[in-house]
Amino acid sequence: MNTMPRRRVLVAGSANLDFVVRAPRAPAPGETVLGGGLQTFPGGKGANQAVACARAGDAPTTMLVALGDDPQGARLRDSLRDAGVALVEKRAPGVASGVAFICIADSGENSIVVAPGANELLAGEDLPPLDGISHLLLQLETPLASVTAYAERARAAGVTVVLNAAPARTLPPRLLAAIDILVVNEGELAMLAGDTGDLEAALRRLPVPCAIVTLGGDGCVARDGEAILRQGAFRVDVVDTTAAGDTFCGVLVAALARGEPLAHALREASAASALACTAAGAQSSIPGRAAVQAMLEARDAGARRAGAGPAHRRGTRG
């Protein structure tokens, strides 16, 4: 009998090639804003999270993804493989791979429009066998019926199901009933739980065992059962916030798959998310574990010199 613990992460979700333009600000309705040069980067919430998980170390990562037979798909495929992500690929001949159009303001914040393309073809029956899988990580850039089917099948198999409920939308009760850990930002929390004036109360209204809300420069708050955990953000010079939330999710799940406690996973994910804001692009900005550990060690050393505990400072989106 195989007694090795299951610790492989399966990510099922989207992959998009990002078309990125920098501008002084995002255009208002009906407004044209002149921007800078056009750049392209591999992205997509699912693919970004898979890359973040793989780079976090000691959490082998597989991704279920749908790609077209086009240059965009080839580039996305190469980026995932280069990051060490094993692929379970649904080929979509004659269908364009997903793309996203991103405007990055001088503040570092971004506005995004996605054309899903092949991502829309992921079906419930496409989920691979779950042998050896400890965690399934999902998002909402693929069909909701498929996401629900994946979550229910994984829950039945004893796999921990993690959903990043982004982009924001109403979630059916069947899906919520199959979720172990729900990750949202403040806007997504408001859609799912109503008023967020009291974050702890809003998190308690979510019918899942564990709920986490990311708060940008204010860090994140988690409700694990009845316990509340708070993690501050890490101060960095922001270049581009694209994939910061995805980095948080991927690194969080990797740490949990390694057996780390939730408090440790939140801290590691927050540090990785901050580092992702210091470089341009989506997957190109996601740090490796060595960089994350160096940041945490430097902050701890600084806190010890100051006679305090681990440094939890106001900073960027985590």
UniProtKB/TrEMBL annotation:
Binding site for ATP: 185, 214-219, 245-246
A Pfam cross-reference name: PfkB
GO MF entry, a single one: ribokinase activity
Cofactor(s) needed: Mg(2+)
Localization (cell): Cytoplasm
Binding site for substrate: 16-18, 44-48, 141, 246
EC number(s) from the headed UniProt entry: 2.7.1.15
Keyword ATP-binding set for record: yes
Keywords: ATP-binding, Carbohydrate metabolism, Cytoplasm, Kinase, Magnesium, Metal-binding, Nucleotide-binding, Potassium, Transferase
Carbohydrate kinase PfkB domain: residues covered: 8-287
Pathway: Carbohydrate metabolism; D-ribose degradation; D-ribose 5-phosphate from beta-D-ribopyranose: step 2/2
Cofactor binding remark: Requires a divalent cation, most likely magnesium in vivo, as an electrophilic catalyst to aid phosphoryl group transfer. It is the chelate of the metal and the nucleotide that is the actual substrate.
Active site positions, chain numbering: 246
Catalytic activity: D-ribose + ATP = D-ribose 5-phosphate + ADP + H(+)
Domain of life from the UniProt record: Bacteria
Annotated binding of K(+), by residue: 240, 242, 276, 279, 281, 285
Notes on activation and inhibition: Activated by a monovalent cation that binds near, but not in, the active site. The most likely occupant of the site in vivo is potassium. Ion binding induces a conformational change that may alter substrate affinity.
Known function: Catalyzes the phosphorylation of ribose at O-5 in a reaction requiring ATP and magnesium. The resulting D-ribose-5-phosphate can then be used either for sythesis of nucleotides, histidine, and tryptophan, or as a component of the pentose phosphate pathway.
UniProt similarity note: Belongs to the carbohydrate kinase PfkB family. Ribokinase subfamily.
Quaternary data: Homodimer.
Protein name: Ribokinase
Organism: Luteimonas composti
